[in-house]
Amino acid sequence: MAKYTGPVCRLCRREGEKLYLKGARCMSQKCPFENPSKRRDFAPGQHGKDAQFKRNRSSDYLLQLREKQKARRVYGVLEKQFRRYYREALRSRGVTGQVLLQTLERRLDNVVFRLGYATSRAQARMLVTHGHFNVNGRRTDVPSVLLEPGDEIQVRPGSQSRPYFRDLKSGDERHTAPGWLSRDLDGLSGKVVKLPAREDIDARLNEQLIVEFYSR
Question: Both 71 and 53 in a single domain?
Answer without folding.
Answer: no
